[in-house]
Structure formats: structure tokens, C-alpha cells
Amino acid sequence: MTGGLGERHNEYRSRRGGFAVDASLPIGDSHLAELLIDWSNENLDVRGDVIERLGGRDSFSQDSLNIHLQDTISLGREGNLLFTPLLRWSAMDGEGRLSWGAGVVQELGDGLSWRASFGSYNRAPNMYERYGDGASIRPAPDLKWEEGTRADLGVMWSGEARGFLVDAEATLFASRSENLIEFVMTSPRFGIYQNIGESRVYGLEVESTMRRGPWELFASFTWMDAVNETPGDYRHGMRLPNRPELEGLLRVARSFAGGRGSLFTELHYTGDMYFDSAETIRSGNLLTVGAGGKYDLSDSLRVSAGVDDLFNRGPEVLREGGDTGPDRTMYYPFQGRSFYLTLDWYF
After folding, report:
1. What is d(CA 130, CA 164) in angstroms, rounded to the nearest whole number?
2. How far apart are CA 333 and CA 327, in angstroms?
3. Which end of the chain has fewer beta carbons closer than 10 Å to its terminal beta carbon, N or C?
């Protein structure tokens, strides 16, 4: 139901074909050059109430090409410092962009290491973002490429503490973007992908895994400050949509049958966030419980099953009224309880 004006139906079918070439070449004792070439052709057919009523194009296609070249260089007498420069070429329908980057990883001893990376990036809008879904997502064929710079700095430690095997990591990250591609709600009935002129994101991510016997405890926490910084825009300084400031996960797992299987339960917290660019559509926070397990039927077959949001809390999250009135139902309620069953075959 969208806006109380009746149901909206849509159907979109995509077909994709392509090829990828991946090659690596050791050069001496301290270089490993790698090349990845990925080309694809994608077609999208859109059907839906809006298309049927208003007409227009309903079939689209695009070609994309990505070329990635990097060299991992071993530095230092002990070879414990790795430096990796890289170049990327991305093209869509004949229009291309070049980006670059570099990363460093160093082992410091006693299980402690650090890493850092810095570089530029670009991303072409995909077909779903450009052409919508034929119903509630409006097309935006004039979307521009997203471009910017990214950096991160992290510290890792692996060792033993109080009888537990511990892997821990803390990472600071930052990015600045031009023409950030983002989905925003424009009304209770429709949304669209738009370019946000200038934006920046700062954040901190901490995660740790602790193991003892058949038990494993995993915890992660993310803080993110994502802000619109478009000069002269009335939304300057406002939070970017679809990015919660706080997010966390706590998972407990236990293996059985000699490690062939495991069961887990988890808590997942998602903080409040906005769904538009003007800080008017804001959701409350969400805490969900999940559970599941996996079992290796053989060396080549694995079955996994579980449930997300066991107590169906997602649909209960409200759109906060703030200064505009009482809390109310979200335009599109969050997904609630969902089950999954997966069979993996390795060959």
C-alpha cells in the first residue's frame, strides 16, 4: 500500500552476461603484479503500474568495463612491510573514469600490526538507480558518476588473553564525495536516487572475535558521522540519509560434531537514521534477535538455516514526529521476521 491510493505492483527482470580475466605475475623476490579485467552487458526489463499507466521506455541496457592493476611490494629486511599501489579504470557505455589508491600493511610483532590506505574512487550509477522499478522508485536517467577520496587507518591484534584466542581490530575511516548517489523519499508514495553535491563521512569501527573450545563470541561497533557539505545548499550540515550514526552486533556461536556444525544467536542494533536529505523523515532505533546454524553434510555440501528479527520488531519501528506531530507508521515499514535456508555446493 503506498500513500493510501492503492497498491503498486512492479516487476523487473535483469539479464547479465560477461567475462573476467584475473592474472598475477611475481617479479623478483619483492613484487607481485596483479591484473583484473571485468566486462559485462546487462539488460533490464521493467513492468509495473506506473509504466502501464504513463507509458515510456520499459527496456534498457548498458555495458560496463573495469580494469584493475596493482603491485604488492615487499619492503624492509624482514619483509614485514607491504606497500600496494593500484590503478583502476571504470567505464560505462563508453564513458570512463580513472582512479588510484595505495595501501600499507606492517607486522609489528607479538601479534600486533597496522594498516592504512588512501586513494580516489568513482562509481557509475547502476541500471536500477537510473531507471527505477516501474512502481514506487522513479527513474533518474541523468544521474552523474559518484567520485571522491577515501582513507582508513587500522590497528589489529591477534593473541591469547585469559584462555581466549582473540582477534581484535579498530579502524578509523573517512571519505569525501562529489555527486554521492543516494536513495531519498520524496513523498509517502515515491522515492528516487539523487546526486548529493558534496558530502563527507567520518567514522570508527571496532570488532573482536574471542574463541575458547567450541565457543565463539563476536562483537562489532560502528560510529559514523555522515554529513551533507554542499556549499550554499539549505541542507548543508544535515545528516546524510540511510546512514545510522550507531550500529552494533553481538553474536555467540557454539560448534559441534567436531566442528562440522555450529549454532548461533545474535543481537543486532541499528540506531535512528533519516530517509530524506532535509532531516524530516526519521526512524527510531531497532534492536533485533537472530538465530541459526550450519552443518557440513560432506566436504562439498553445506546447509545453513536461520531466522532474522525473531520477534518481528522491524514493522514496529515508527517514523518519529519530532516538532511536526506524533510518531507515526513508516512510509515503508522495515522488514520483519524472515527465514532463510541455503545449500552451498563446492566443486
Report:
1. 49
2. 13
3. C
The answer to whether the CB of 150 falls within 8 A of the CB of 170 is no
**Structural contact between residues 305 and 341, judged by C-beta atoms closer than 8 angstroms:** yes
Of all residues in the chain, what percent carry a pLDDT higher than 90? 70
- Residue 263 grid cell: 549454532
**Strands 246-256 and 215-228, bridge-based pairing:** antiparallel
Q: Return the closest-CA partner of residue 341 out of 308, 298, 300, 315.
A: 308
Residue-range domain boundaries for the chain: 31-345
User: Of all helices (H) and strands (E), which one includes residue 90?
Assistant: strand 81-92
Please, which residues bridge with residue 323 across strands?
Answer: none
With beta carbons less than 8 A apart as the criterion, state whether 86 and 51 touch.
no
Contact 39, 68 (CB under 8 A): no
Q: For 96-100, what is the mean pLDDT?
A: 96
pTM of the model: 0.86
Instruction: Specify which residues 306 forms β-bridges with.
Output: 292, 340
Torsions phi, psi for 288 (to 5 deg):
-125, 160
Q: What is the DSSP letter of 298?
A: S
Question: Contacts by 265-271 with C-beta closer than 8 Å and gap 24+?
Answer: 265/289, 265/290, 265/291, 266/290, 266/291, 270/244, 271/244, 271/245, 271/246, 271/247
Nearest CA among 305, 307, 308 for reference residue 287: 308
Range 31-345 classified under CATH 3.40.50.12780: no
Phi, psi of 232 (to 5 degrees): 75, 0
